Amino acid sequence: MLLLAAASLVAFVLLLYMVSPLISPKPLALSGAHVVVTGGSSGIGKCIAIECYKQGAFITLVARNEDKLLQAKKEIEKHSINDKQVVLCISVDVSQDYGQVENVMKQAQEKLGPVDMLVNCAGTSLAGKFEDLEVSTFERLMSVNYLGSVYPSRAVITTMKERRVGRVVFVSSQAGQLGLFGYTAYSSSKFAIRGLAEALQMEVKPYNVYVTVAYPPDTDTPGFAKENQTKPLETRLISETTSVCKPEQVAKQIVKDAVQGNFNSSIGSDGYMLSSLTCGMAPVTSITEGLQQRLRFIQKRHKNQLHLEPGAVSAAGEPEGRRQPLGARRLAVWWERLRRLIRQCSAA
Ligand SMILES: NC(=O)c1ccc[n+]([C@@H]2O[C@H](COP(=O)([O-])OP(=O)(O)OC[C@H]3O[C@@H](n4cnc5c(N)ncnc54)[C@H](OP(=O)(O)O)[C@@H]3O)[C@@H](O)[C@H]2O)c1
Q: Is 288 exposed, middle or buried (0-12, 13-18, 19+ CB in 10 A)?
């Protein structure tokens, strides 16, 4: 009986995987595609541009500083796979004036054709305790991180819908999945992106346009180095509980998810776990994503019931008692780390 049930389950999963490509979005071919990357002159954005270029895309880089743009262009061009590929640079502040952003997007489309993929990666961060941050910081982060993603997307979405082709990528952050000490200004600007993306996906899916939201962890970039200088002790200690990723690794995952049309893009097992805990009612674009989300809900309820009590963790930070699934053990270790951190902070 048990054998029959197991065989039926395996057959069901196999069947789902077989029909999945029929229902999932058709992967976007990057060869010859026009990819616009805002924030493409540095860090994660530059690595995303390189990743797309390596797959044959034509690239438009958007950022403010012209020297940095030209330097990034040279670096990206080293990865060409054919001599027709072009890297176009446009200097504009994506957060200031919608008319200006719309104009530069028009210029880019006139030169390299309609945009097949837009990656909204321009962003900035500044940490600090709520009452220590200037009110203008909240305005600036909202403006760059949120409106700086709205404007370019708004400028290309109509053409994408008309052509019934397109990918729009929003780069949020793990701090856009849960609020963290010191990130009152940054987290809220990154949470806003998720709301925008969820609503937009619902509107554009019938037009074969797919939205991806990426939640990178701490990543070794010039932006991260700058942000580190502003972190209060508590934020630094929280940050130190996880390792710092390489921008190339983050970029690879984001491009892969965007090409597949996945809504959610997380990096590494911690990222996957955080996404599991915070998936809410996020849209799903394939059977695989749908199944994962259901499993995450079950997993989440299971974890909450079994392992969130502090007693479930030994002094060494390892869970005690009966064997727990890997995800639950990691969660228990995290929980213990957080408790130690709070103790450390109150002692400091
Ligand atoms: N690094 C991390 O640990 C991490 C983690 C999670 C999420 N993220 C997010 O990932 C994205 C990229 O971060 P990063 O660390 O790679 O940053 P970065 O190295 O500082 O690069 C930021 C890019 O955005 C551009 N930019 C900034 N403000 C702009 C504006 N107003 N208009 C146009 N371009 C602008 C910058 O060029 P100009 O200054 O010349 O304009 C640069 O090209 C950001 O949205 C960030 O919030 C980063």
A: middle
